[in-house]
Design a protein that fits this description.
Oligomer: heterodimer
Shape of chain B: globular
CATH architecture of chain A: 3-Layer(aba) Sandwich
Largest sheet of chain B: 5 strands, parallel
Radius of gyration of chain A: 18 Å
Number of domains of chain A: 1
CATH superfamily of chain A: P-loop containing nucleotide triphosphate hydrolases
Strand order of the largest sheet of chain B: 2-3-1-4-5
Shape of chain A: globular
Order of helices and strands of chain A: EHEHHEHHEHHEH
Low-confidence stretches of chain B: none
Number of strands of chain A: 5
Structural class of chain B: alpha/beta
Number of domains of chain B: 1
Mean pLDDT of chain A: 91
Helix content of chain B: 40-55%
Number of strands of chain B: 5
Number of helices of chain B: 9
Largest sheet of chain A: 5 strands, parallel
Radius of gyration of chain B: 18 Å
CATH topology of chain B: Rossmann fold
Number of helices of chain A: 8
CATH architecture of chain B: 3-Layer(aba) Sandwich
Order of helices and strands of chain B: EHEHHEHHEHHEHH
Strand order of the largest sheet of chain A: 2-3-1-4-5
CATH topology of chain A: Rossmann fold
Chain lengths: 232, 240
Amino acid sequence: MGKIELRKNSSKGRLIAVEGMDGSGKSTQIYLLKRWLELEGYKVFFTEWNSSVLVKKATKKGKTANLLTPTTFSLIHCTDFADRFERQIWPLLCAGYIVLADRYCFTAFARDAVRGCSPDWVRTMYSFATQPDITFFFQVPPEVAINRILDGRPTLKYHEAGMDLGLSADIYESFRIFQGRINDAYISMIPEYDFTVIDATQPIDMQQQLVRRIVSERIDLPVYKWKVRSRV
Amino acid sequence: MKFFGEGLPGVNAARLTGKLIAIEGADGSGRSTQIRMLTDWLEGHGYATVNVGLKRSNLVSEELEAAMQGNVLSPITFSLFYATDFADQLENIIVPALKAGLIVLADRYIYTLLARDIVRGGNAEWVESLYSIALVPDVVFYLDVAPRFLVERNMQKSAQLDYWESGMDIRLSRDIFDSFMRYQRLMRNEFRRMSARYNFEVINGNRPPRSIANDLQKHVAPLLKGPQAEKMNISPVSAD
C-alpha cells in the first residue's frame, strides 16, 4: 500500500497542530500561542485530544474496566476525534478560523502502532482528517520528557504508562519503555507528515518566540482578524 | 477462517475452529425468527451456539443508543461508533467463541453497516478498510423481502415505522411512509449489488418461516463436523 495521505486543507481556515511526548511541554506552547492570537484579535478555536463529551463516558468506562483491546482503544479514540472533527474542527475551518489542536491524529498513529495495530489500518481510518497547515513537533530526548513527568506527578495512569502492553510489571519501567517507543514512532513521522521540529529543551519563551515567528511567516494572519465586533 | 484484510493484532484466524453464520435483512425480514429456529435446530443436535448482533457491545452500546435517540452523530462518527461496537464484540465474544469451536450466529453483520454508509453517500473504500479487521463468515444469508411486505410486517409488529429504518436522517421524504419505502429500496439494491461480491445466499423471505428455516439448514448442515453431522435432520416443512 502506498502512502496514505490526509486530506488537503480545502477550507479558508488554517489548522495548527502540536505533537510530542507527554512532558515535552507542547500544551504550554499551544496555550501561549492561543493567548497571543486571541489578544491580537484573531478568530481562534482550541481543541484537545480525547475531549468529545459524546464519547467520553465510553472511553472512561473502557479504560476503568480495562475493557479495551488495541483495536477498540484505537477505534474509540478515532470516534472521539471524528466527533470533534465533524462538529467543530471542520465547520470552524470552513468559517475561516485558525484552529489549534493539542494533539492530532499523529498521536493515534504513534500510540496505536506501538500497541500493535496495523499502521495502514489506522492511517486509513483517520484519512477523513485534514492535514494541518503546520504541525509543530516538540522534540526532547525521551529521558528528559520521562523525568519531567515522573518528577512532578508520581501516580501514572494505566494506559498512559502502556501497562496494557505488558512491557513490565513495574508501572514506572513500563512508562519508560512505552514512551521511548512512542518517541521512535514520532521521529519516523517527521518527514512523512512534514512536522516542523521545535527543540523542546530550550527555554519556554525562546520556543514560543520561534513558534510565533513561524506562524506569522506561514499564515497570512490579517485574513483571520474578526470582521464583526461581537464583544465590546 | 480468514479475515477480510489485515485482521486483528495477535489473532491467528487459521486457529479458529468454530463456524460463523451471518443473517442479514431489514427489520421485519424475519431475522430473529430464523435465528431462533436455527439455534433450536443446532442445539437440538448438540452444537453450542452464541448469538451476537449490532449495538450489543459492553463498551459502547448504551452511548450509541443515547446518541441515536438524540440524533446528534455526524456520519463519520456514526460509522466509527458502530465499528467500535462491532470490534468490541468481535474480540470479546466472536473470536473466543470461534476459538472454542462454537457456532456464532450473527443477527446482522458488517454488510448492514456497509450498506447503510454507502446509501448515505459514505466512502465505500474507507468503510471497507475499517472492517478489514472482521472475519469472513462461513455463510451469509440475506433474507430478501420486498419493501411493501416489510411495511406490513413492521406495522403489524409495532404499528409504527422506526426512524432509522426509514432513513429519516437522510431526508428522502418528509413523509415517513414514503421515506421508509425509498430507503428500504435503496438498501435492498445495495444488498443485491453486494451479494455476488460477498457470496451471499439470497433467500426469498416472502415465504412461511418453516420453508426459510429449511433452506438455511440445508446450507448450514455441510459446515458441521463430528459424528452428529452425518445424521443432521433437516426439519420437515410443515404448515405453520
